[in-house]
Design goal:
homohexamer; about 325 residues; OB fold (Dihydrolipoamide Acetyltransferase, E2P)
Amino acid sequence: MDKKLKDFQPNETLDIPVLIKSADVRTAQDSSSYIALVFTDSSGEITGKLWHASQQAIRDFTTGTVIQLTGKRETYQDRPQIRIRHMQVLPSADQDPHAYTPVAPTSREALTEFVEQTIAGIQEPTWQAIVRWIFKAHWDAFFTYPAAKTNHHAYEGGLAYHTVSMVKLAQKIAPLYDAVDPDLLISGALLHDMGKTRELTGPIATQYRAEGNLIGHVVMIDEEIVRACDALAIDSHSEAVILLRHMVLSHHGRLEFGAPVLPQLLEAELLHQIDQMDASLTMITNALADTKPGDYSERVFGLDNRRFYQRRPLD
Amino acid sequence: MDKKLKDFQPNETLDIPVLIKSADVRTAQDSSSYIALVFTDSSGEITGKLWHASQQAIRDFTTGTVIQLTGKRETYQDRPQIRIRHMQVLPSADQDPHAYTPVAPTSREALTEFVEQTIAGIQEPTWQAIVRWIFKAHWDAFFTYPAAKTNHHAYEGGLAYHTVSMVKLAQKIAPLYDAVDPDLLISGALLHDMGKTRELTGPIATQYRAEGNLIGHVVMIDEEIVRACDALAIDSHSEAVILLRHMVLSHHGRLEFGAPVLPQLLEAELLHQIDQMDASLTMITNALADTKPGDYSERVFGLDNRRFYQRRPLD
Amino acid sequence: MDKKLKDFQPNETLDIPVLIKSADVRTAQDSSSYIALVFTDSSGEITGKLWHASQQAIRDFTTGTVIQLTGKRETYQDRPQIRIRHMQVLPSADQDPHAYTPVAPTSREALTEFVEQTIAGIQEPTWQAIVRWIFKAHWDAFFTYPAAKTNHHAYEGGLAYHTVSMVKLAQKIAPLYDAVDPDLLISGALLHDMGKTRELTGPIATQYRAEGNLIGHVVMIDEEIVRACDALAIDSHSEAVILLRHMVLSHHGRLEFGAPVLPQLLEAELLHQIDQMDASLTMITNALADTKPGDYSERVFGLDNRRFYQRRPLD
Amino acid sequence: MDKKLKDFQPNETLDIPVLIKSADVRTAQDSSSYIALVFTDSSGEITGKLWHASQQAIRDFTTGTVIQLTGKRETYQDRPQIRIRHMQVLPSADQDPHAYTPVAPTSREALTEFVEQTIAGIQEPTWQAIVRWIFKAHWDAFFTYPAAKTNHHAYEGGLAYHTVSMVKLAQKIAPLYDAVDPDLLISGALLHDMGKTRELTGPIATQYRAEGNLIGHVVMIDEEIVRACDALAIDSHSEAVILLRHMVLSHHGRLEFGAPVLPQLLEAELLHQIDQMDASLTMITNALADTKPGDYSERVFGLDNRRFYQRRPLD
Amino acid sequence: MDKKLKDFQPNETLDIPVLIKSADVRTAQDSSSYIALVFTDSSGEITGKLWHASQQAIRDFTTGTVIQLTGKRETYQDRPQIRIRHMQVLPSADQDPHAYTPVAPTSREALTEFVEQTIAGIQEPTWQAIVRWIFKAHWDAFFTYPAAKTNHHAYEGGLAYHTVSMVKLAQKIAPLYDAVDPDLLISGALLHDMGKTRELTGPIATQYRAEGNLIGHVVMIDEEIVRACDALAIDSHSEAVILLRHMVLSHHGRLEFGAPVLPQLLEAELLHQIDQMDASLTMITNALADTKPGDYSERVFGLDNRRFYQRRPLD
Amino acid sequence: MDKKLKDFQPNETLDIPVLIKSADVRTAQDSSSYIALVFTDSSGEITGKLWHASQQAIRDFTTGTVIQLTGKRETYQDRPQIRIRHMQVLPSADQDPHAYTPVAPTSREALTEFVEQTIAGIQEPTWQAIVRWIFKAHWDAFFTYPAAKTNHHAYEGGLAYHTVSMVKLAQKIAPLYDAVDPDLLISGALLHDMGKTRELTGPIATQYRAEGNLIGHVVMIDEEIVRACDALAIDSHSEAVILLRHMVLSHHGRLEFGAPVLPQLLEAELLHQIDQMDASLTMITNALADTKPGDYSERVFGLDNRRFYQRRPLD
């Protein structure tokens, strides 16, 4: 297999196709222009700077362009960066950004099949109907959007991957506690972050939309449930709908995390904890991926800026 | 004018009609039953206990009943209470609970006229249409519900009175700052607490409904706006609607107060401050109403348990 | 099956054997003595008061005594209490306190077998040796102590039941995340609360020992690991031991919860979350056990004083 | 009208007189000296750097000097900066720093007249006498000092402008609430920040004085009231004086904001809220002044680092 | 020596003179009147209730009266109380309240001499002059007032005792650190709480005065320093005075404890820590005074509600 | 005496031997390599950068090397730095790092004698035996390790110096309070930070060891006491040992500072306060050492980022 961007060692030269994930034109201290670039392929991303950028270069090397990159991997202030030797825009036949972005570690086919089976397995007819209606309306976005702009599952397909991971946790944990209604827990897990498909701008190089900031994905998914009820002629004030709406409205778990109401159902508290569990384990695993045995990871912003220890082999 | 419940001095005897606001049957230390009562009329409320209550008394003296109360106002643990001598259920012709509850200090007619004129004065057509549609759907509840279960404006008609007070503040403050859009501010003020008509159970002896706890009035009014758009064929993702939804969603001002999003518009921050201003001034005024010059009020729960000072006459 | 203490309805008379869980002699307002009692059997506990208690009664009805209780279940200030008609100390043949205390919902045999198999299943030899040594030293206490004085699993055998529940969660969750070392997670889960056997006074009517307050169970289990190393000639500064000690030292998850260090291993963070998950689900389930459909539970102290909703049947 | 500093677009060349607001000599990475400059005129301020600064340049281009600036407006790290081509000290006849600083949006004459009328309108004689005495002693400073070093109203005359804005709010709000004493509220508003004239160093390029940090403007204005009483033979322990002192001592509203006592008067709580309202609206308006429709402002430090949304035109 | 109030054991009868520290007339559940009394003598205080109090009793047994008390010490809800058999007002010749209040454990003569020598020992002339002037103005109050209404040193003379304890700490600690100016530290310690003589109502049965709540003792002592400067023709803006004012203004150490400014001098931080040290040690010692070896004290409100352990004898 | 590193004024040239405290090789913006250096000698430390570093330079100028440094002291971004002209590794005869590091202001001999006498003065035999055993095991480390990596006493011998300062405070304060057991307080002070000898890597250029992060020095010293008991055949559950363990376990004073238990003994609370007192006074004194009269120090991280004022001479 061809070597990818993050496979190269410090001081190793590279000559590979990559996607420009972002390109900011800035002014250097000597008042010339340079471009601050983020390169990416399926292995991850590294920054680089194109010094003394010509007007032509500024026009060519824009966000979303696939280029052939020649240079060397170096280290600047403890982080990797590419010392650029040459950049060449690839012919349009090779301009497939999706081929150069990290993707969920499970195939879309596998995720799709899992989601279809999970929805079909919901016994409570109201919840199944609502979940099915919302998934139908957001099907493609659900499988392509990231779960967040940064922090965790911030890649194409991350929303589906995170959701499926949570459903799997739910399926394992629910049977251990008689009082837990698996239907309610799994329906909540499937829907909880679906508002992200309207809060964010898209699958790649995603940003928060103004509407996303002003309304928030928590309320947006609640709105979807209300619309689903209207479309399906379900009473939106029935016990079943109120319970489901409470699941998504309270899933951030604390008011200071943006939940308009605190979890007041056994399943709502559990959904919040499952969400945190999958997010935490993912963030720690990512942080440790770049850490050598015996060292500490970078600080993890989403976990109180803690650093995590990469253990050494046991004797 | 006849003397009301709170007009009597300590140790003064009374013989007046009052409403039983609540009646809890409890067991005394000697294992007999007694009823813990809250009496109310338009002047306010005082508690009392009916010792050694018979089964007949327990059946007669229930919440919502108007009775003739004979007794004496006394003081128990620094609070007023009625030492009951006799209680007599009044004939059904006199059973009008509304006549015995505190009401808003402005007449419903005056409030109605003010609200109608305010709605008619909204220049922006989308906001006027939405406000008008929602008020029409909740007209009677708006003018009869309290603004809260306790704390402030917790009386019949309190929701309308609090809303109108906020609109008046908005009308005075907006002209002082060029950047403020009075239409947006006033539309937000009119709608901000309308979800209370579904969060609470009714105008008198109000409680939180289960649905009220699980969804919350902040999300409920947002849902109303969305439904208004659907009914009026307004695009719920248009700039105008997003701005209005943001006003009501952020009006609690802080995440820890249950706002799903923080105020991100000049008018949204101002709406939150106007809400707090009217609530604070009302709570302090109420607390000082029972405080003698030179003394301190009871602690005000909604204001960090602070006590307020009743000033003495200046020389 | 005979009716138990909590099976009786309000105002129903009872005549059953119960254990006196605590008995405080106090002075009434009329200066006579009374005994404030907590009665318990395997169904739970209810309070009662013996008024005008004689010196004989004070000598007879002490903590830990099994009596025949005749009386009526009543309600005082929204909580159940027994109106005592008669109390009679049972003959010494019937003085078996264990027969009248709530016990873990799984048999000791089942728990024992599960623990033995789990220990045998630890692959890493150092961890298995340490876990085995500590369990051997605390075998009986582990299966009889409660997991806490109040809050959750506060009954005889609660420590084993809580520990086994956590191990089961660990066994289900670990396979979903490649990066998790199940051996470390399960070893930590088995040991994490073992210090309670020295922090608390015993299986029944447990209290914190002075030593328990001054040292704390977190440090006490760490001390046990160090002693196990000394006994087994294992280097207590080896990587394997440091990892295991970190698991127990950090399992409270936050400094303000009494963890001397924050979790810095993937498995340590997960252990903390599993501990919280089992505790939360147990506390909520207990709170809802006494709550009617459509009502809210009592406030749950260990979960930010939240109340939880008992759902109604869906149509 | 001549173009001002902030009127130029990115990449536009400029040749205008400006004031050097601050000038720090620093060492570049190549060990040469450069001057980090802040230029200002009545339109606002922009930074710039003079590279390879000679000893002569370091002597010439100091804080408070008016120069002719030739250069180009560029963008560096998302903020505007001037690429300097030439700087020339203007002849002493043109050295009028006041001509190049932002000033309050209302003329000093208008502010003066408003303040005089407001003081004359205070009915309570003790308060009027104290306010008049203090204003007389600080007359010129009151109309020239800023209200703060940064955050809001941080320009020459800002103190008077902020104070007048608060008085106007007070005049509008007080009549809406019967319980509010407008005299006390307005007297408090007039005095509340007067201690700034001793806490800060002066109207231009203001800093905190050591005395300002060690005593604080809250205590300093209280000291002024005490001295006014001594000068006017008013009993500083009379009810009227205690009330006025409490207004200024509590106006920061919370202990953690540096109030030595919490507001305990209706008017004191309201004064605090009016202060926050004017400060918030000013900060948000300033932040939005540089923001394009549909974009978010820079983070506003004084408002929890929130960003505010610049709305787009409605259809 | 005669037995004092707190020398009697539970269930022991007593017949001794005591002072009525407070007397509240209340209504019993059977609607008769009773008096809730606090008795005190130099050994401490105990509560009691006079049931079925006649109008004569209500007139006789008022706060500040010395009576002959006959009764029995009992225990009610874990606290001691007196079961009253008889109360008799003592003749006016015996009405000396000071004889029945706890006093500082050091004689006023010793405290006076220590304070005089300490003031004389201040080398810096400005500080000595100011301290001397303020002590002269408050001499008697300083030696009779308590240091607080509750918590610690809440007895006649407590202010002087607490102040002297802090000066002794200062005298011991200052020589260990070269950078500490003992003159500044000791001058600050002498003055720091002097504002209490105006914040509180008097030496016995002290309360907060309205002025005390509205201004606070921290600002009150600052005001005294300013007045001392005016009287002594010292420039109140000189470095020496600013330093001394900062010492008293910052001595609460944190904004949330009511300090208008944080400590910004080495000596100011140290003064705050010495204040806390003396207060903490006193509160803990008091709490342990009633605690048996091996037991835990009551919770100490001023120390995060912690309980403290009374150690057992070592072998 | 020869001039040391921090004796040189800005722009003064220097030619002195110094120790390289740290040396990080980085890539400049022009992609050449440079070394970011920290130089130190007994007077303190200053940074410098070696631009365009050759491979030979990178090999030569490593952490722990003593060099002859020629250059000039300059100022970069308000901090001193050395503009390097030449660097020369000194011959191995001059390679004595200890000669170039700051040391405790008291000689090791004096500290040693003080510690020996203090240990000998402990009257309680169990505590003396344990303290003696632990000091014997860590004797050399105790006198050479720093007390911390940064903040305060972060130099060779700092642990002993900080410990001795605390013992001196304890010896002065204990006699002022009868209730304090000086033996327990002094034993706790001697041991409290001894775990640092295992938490940190060594006396010079110290770092936290992985074991130090995962276990923490608070638990490490507790472990030492347990081992001492085992070695000395002392019952580790005796009252005397529990008290001593509690002293070290609670000395951080608050859970959020990493104490697994809160102080529950009078002496434990006092030990915590003495620790804070010595740390605070040392941090403030250090911060003021570089501050000119009338100026404010840098912000002190360990004291809420406060700045401290360097007072001017009094007239």
